[in-house]
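thread: overnight batch results

M.L. [08:02]
morning all. the overnight job finished for the chain we discussed friday. pasting input first so we're all looking at the same thing
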Amino acid sequence: MFSIVCILLHPQIFIDKETVTNALQASNDAHLLQLDNLADNIQHQARSWLNQLTTEIHEKEEYSRNRSRVIEINRVIDAFRDALDQLDLTTAAET
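M.L. [08:03]
and the structure it wrote out:
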């Protein structure tokens, strides 16, 4: 059955060289469009992943940096508190 359909369609599809060339060019263009769309999709996903990764790294580093600054501020406060206590003890001992 399939061979009969092919034989019947053959004269209609492949009328001349120009028709075959146009059909092949259209098929090639369709494949190239699919490849371009796939490449665009991959590129979009890669950029999205990179942006997400960059944001995560920035947030983690920012949290770590802020935490370090809070610890540093607490140490400075403790040092000033100790110095103030020493000053109060020295002043109390003199009076």
